[in-house]
Amino acid sequence: MEASYTKKWIFKISLLSISLMTMIAPAISPALPLMYRAFPGYSNSAVETLLTVPNFGIMICLFLSPLIISFIGEKKTVVIGLVLALAAGIFPMFSNDYALVFASRFLFGAGVGLFNSLTISLIARFYKGDALSSMMGFQSAAGSLGAASVAFLVSYLVTLGWHQTFLIYAIALPILLLFTLFVPLENDHKSGKTKNIKNKEHLPHQKINFKIVQLALLIFILFAFFLVSQFKLPELVVTKKIATLSQVSLLSGITTLVGIPVGASYGFIKKKLGGLILPLGFLLTSLGFILLSLADSLIIIALGVIILGIGFGFCVPSIYVLMADYAPVGSENLASTVLLVFTNVGVFLSPAILNFIGSFVGGSSAQMSMNISAVIFMIIFVVSISNYLISSKKNNLKLKGAKND
């Protein structure tokens, strides 16, 4: 039975507010060209790592958070994570030292990683049935809304300088106040360690299979090469003199906003397209990168990022739907954690991977990076559509055989 306060709008907003933090780490990407000049002793790839290193912190704390929660409880874990994200997030505003900025970015990710999994599990704790489904939909939208909102804010802050763009992470302060004041966790672990040990007796042995390993590698590639659109787009438009950094940030916000209706309509579209939706997602992503590579106007750039947003919006949920189908019974949590870890590793290594490939194909300029991503996603499209056609043919033969019997 749901407590009465769970029906109050202020409680729902406060609970959902922590999801605003989960997708905002790359939001400072429009400031990268300014940061290249601010750190002349470091390569572009090293500076781009400042965009992705939070995901390494998130990955580490994904493993640590269950242990921390078992000792201090969910609410204190969220509060500590928000405080850490707030302090580390705004620290680069006051520093010109690359090593310190790098460390602060890592700690920002660590703070978010502490409560990342709780953005889902706390909703499941308070809501059931139709209310749960609605809140889960709002949770997904909240992440996209947070990313889009700070992207629009960065479009103004970047005109003031690269330091000022980090002010966006001050959003953690009102979220901290909302969560602290309006999300009561009366049943939070008072003796979490003991409770955790007791629960372990009833937990099934979790494992992953080869299908999950394949999906983990796929989502690694997806994020490693998709993120090129985040950290290379500013360089592309500046090099080609197509747009200002402020306009790039606005485009990033539009890309994220595209994900909200795409995610909301995903279930309907999947019913119509079935297994074709994943290959279509890869095809659209490849086409989006092709447009960005060839773009000579702001309109083409905008069209490219919108197509990218739609393609990416098809790919991610499709992979998680397949995960739910392929995961061994009782191992869904482990499977989703594996995919989340590979996601963050892909994001973290993205600049290094592009730099490595670029060393063999003529450099890692923005345009070359867009071309590399376009080719990678086109290859994945060809493989995925081939698998779909082979699978469909096998299923049709089985149906014919069943009819003949």
Overview of the structural elements:
It is a single chain. This protein has 405 residues and is mainly α. It folds into 2 domains: 1-202, MFS general substrate transporter like domains (Growth Hormone, Chain: A); 204-405, Up-down Bundle (Growth Hormone, Chain: A), CATH 1.20.1250. Helices cover 78% and strands 0% of the residues. It has helices at 9-17, 32-38, 44-72, 74-90, 98-116, 118-126, 129-157, 162-165, 172-182, 192-200, 210-226, 228-231, 233-240, 245-264, 266-273, 277-294, 298-326, 332-361, 366-404. The longest helix is centred in the last third of the chain and has 39 residues, at 366-404. The chain is globular and about 75 Å long. The termini are far apart. It holds the Pfam family MFS_1.
Summarize the structure.
The chain crosses the membrane at residues 9-29, 49-71, 78-94, 106-126, 138-160, 166-187, 208-228, 248-269, 276-294, 300-322, 334-358, 370-390. The protein has two domains: 1-202, MFS general substrate transporter like domains (Growth Hormone, Chain: A), CATH 1.20.1250.20; 204-405, MFS general substrate transporter like domains (Growth Hormone, Chain: A, Up-down Bundle), CATH 1.20.1250. Helices cover 78% and strands 0% of the residues.
